[in-house]
Amino acid sequence: MTTVVAPTGEPTAGSTHSSGWIRAARRAESVRARRVSVVLAVVGVVAFCVSLSVGDFPIPLADVVPALVGLGTDDAEFIVGTLRLPRALAAVLVGAAFGVSGAIFQALARNPLASPDIIGITAGASTAAVALIVLASAPAVVVSLGSFAGALATATAIYLLAWRQGVSAYRLVLVGAAFGVSGAIFQALARNPLASPDLIGITAGASTAAVALIVLASAPAVVVSLGSFAGALATATAIYLLAWRQGVSAYRLVLVGIGLGAMLASITSYLLT
After folding, report:
1. Closest to 173 in 3D by CA, of 74, 105, 229
2. Are 176 and 158 in contact (CB under 8 A)?
3. What's this model's pTM, rounded to 2 decimal places?
């Protein structure tokens, strides 16, 4: 039997079909990306205008654009241009900075899972900030700098622990995720990826207990720490009991936790006012 081999550089029928399918898939993905971008841009513009409209002194949406270009009333121009526009622009720029930083982080790690919250960097920043507030009663500037230092130290530790003659993207994610392994274990036990302690109210229970001890009893740091742990434990127990119906459904656990967390957040806000 004789085998016919296509000359070098000449695509076979199979390779031509495959490359055409790849090009079609890329075109479809590009069209989808453009449509999503347009929709998100429209939603962003509408949300921006709404943020300029609502407040203690509501401005009709129809008057927002004229006020921005100097064609509105004096009151509207002052409220929109002087009071609300800087806040709205700051929100847009900060959100864009977060988005770009996350995209850069994922591109450098070559892994879409490598976001700062997933691999533990956010946890390091939060731990440093809370430690400075509770243990040292540090001012806001020191807390901000300490939070940045905590994030930097956590990122350095993750990088060093993930180093094995180079850093693999997947090893970086796995080592970083180990810093937040408690959240992964919690989700596995609840059999629901939404069941993180902060989402279903356990973190809110710990925060409410800590704030109550600080505001109402001026408790020392050790008592606040123990009370925070007790608050988290009591909240978890309450969520479990309220979600019990001849067993605990994972989704019922999440729904009950969200409701209880909202109630605890309102109590915390009341204590802080």
Report:
1. 105
2. yes
3. 0.46
